[in-house]
TrEMBL record:
Protein name: Signal peptidase I
Molecular functions (GO terms): serine-type endopeptidase activity
Species name: Archaeoglobus fulgidus
Keywords: Endoplasmic reticulum, Hydrolase, Membrane, Protease, Signal-anchor, Transmembrane, Transmembrane helix
Membrane topology qualifier: Single-pass type II membrane protein
Amino acid sequence: MKLSDLLMLILAVFLLASTAGFLLNRPVLLSYVTSDSMTPTLNRGDLFLINPLAEAKPDDIIVFNLNGHWTVHRVVAETDGGYITKGDHNIATDQQGSNSVVKRESVAGVVLVLLGNPIKIPEVGNYIQRLSGTTMNILLAVFMIVGGAMLLTGKEERRKKERKVYRLRYKTAYVAVSTISIAMLLLSVIATWGVVGFNYASTLAGGQKEGWYLPESEFDRQIEIKNNALFPLLYLFSSESERVELKDESKILSGGERAELSVHVRVPSETRIYYEEVKVHAYPLILPSDLIIRMYGLNPFLPLAAFAVELAAVLGVIYYATRAGEEEVIRLSKRRRLKL
């Protein structure tokens, strides 16, 4: 593989993977700093790169979801339950307040470093923030999907006059864009899945501080859920804890809508600190909600498989209805350099 082809492939993968981030406002491969908590290591507005496959360890800088907000802080310690984190400019760790440890599934990735310093581009994040919004996210997503498809599906042929011809047929483009669109939709849906957790203490001093409750008492906890997608989603909630009772097991939220999930907790008699988790799964309303709920009861991934099959069938019907055949839609030529 030529170096130019390798660079184009890397660029295509980067563009396509980043599409999920713009669709859901979730960091994928890159993000930017929105506060001064990591100064001077990372300053407000710095754009940085993320390795989503790396496993975080102490002293790494990670991007994680903290109470519904994406945060970039340093790992100062690792426990069985997750990570203890702290901003370089902050005095206390994030967990010295009411926040629980950062669960591993809440981490989007590790910030890439070179010679001990994060790889960053100053001020870019400030411009992105000014342009942020639903319309801009849609435009960026469309640009990335089309650009990635062109990079991945362009065909190179040699002509008699020693010219390189890049051709992109309608069929190839349609299949590529359709496949990428379905994959990005499923990826964006899976990205909304997660676990919402909270701590509380069973203590004889219940009521003296927030989060302290008397043994064998009961309380209600409100958990905020936000649909960061651009389309409506059906949210399904579950908990494996016998101490937790969910008043709502499902909610339908429009794009950008927020809602509160009411959780009823029965405090155990044993005095200690407890941690409860509520699993959150979300699905687009491509199928009837009752059918999605039934499939979810069998396996959380079953509705996604049904979505993929349904969308592929619809896109296939549209393609054959257009009768586009092998018509070329893009044709670019480049003369070969003459060797001296």
